Amino acid sequence: MNITVQSIRFNADQKLIEFIKKKTGKLEQFLDSIIGGECYLRLENVDDEANKISEIKLNIPGSQLFAKGQAKSFEEATDIAVESLRRQINKHKTKVKNTVVNGRAEVLAVEEEEEEEEYD
Fold first, then answer.
1. Which CATH number belongs to the domain containing residue 69 in this structure?
2. Given this model, what pLDDT does residue 99 score?
3. Which segments of the chain are extended strands (E)?
4. What single-letter DSSP state applies at residue 45?
5. Would you call 65 helix, strand, or coil by DSSP?
6. Are the C-beta atoms of residues 66 and 78 closer than 8 Å to each other?
7. How far is CA 30 from CA 34, 66, 88, 98, in A?
8. Which of 10, 21, 71, 77 has the greatest count of CB atoms below 10 A from its CB?
9. What is the domain extent for residue 11?
10. What is the mean pLDDT of each run of 10 residues along the chain (120 residues)?
């Protein structure tokens, strides 16, 4: 999976970029068909210590998944976003699996009706 990391209004350290690529690369364990992704890192101008934001967008066949994490460090924000994406991937896989099962069940029901008509 190819992920692009963009830091907005600051220069990200190479260690941070490698950390993000490593964390997002682990998502391929849950879904093989991830096409690519983008990660945006930004600093928010607030008084709160949790002013670091990591936004991750994954492109998958037929859809896009998006997650945002905000924390005291970019690593922590990335962890939050990746965990959210993992849950979204599991929901997506369940939805696709149910669609296939329901679609297959409907096809089987139609085939059974056709067979019954042939015997009549």
1. 3.30.160.100
2. 73
3. 2-8, 36-43, 52-60, 63-71
4. -
5. strand
6. no
7. 10, 16, 10, 17
8. 77
9. 2-86
10. 93 96 95 95 90 96 95 97 96 82 56 50
Task: Say which amino acid occupies 63.
Answer: S
Q: In what order do the strands lie in the sheet with 36-43?
A: 2-8, 36-43, 52-60, 63-71
Whole-number pLDDT of residue 103: 62
Q: Tally the domains of the chain.
A: 1
Place of tokens 């066949």: 61
Note if the pTM is more than 0.70: yes
Q: What number of helices (H) and strands (E) belong to the chain?
A: 2, 4
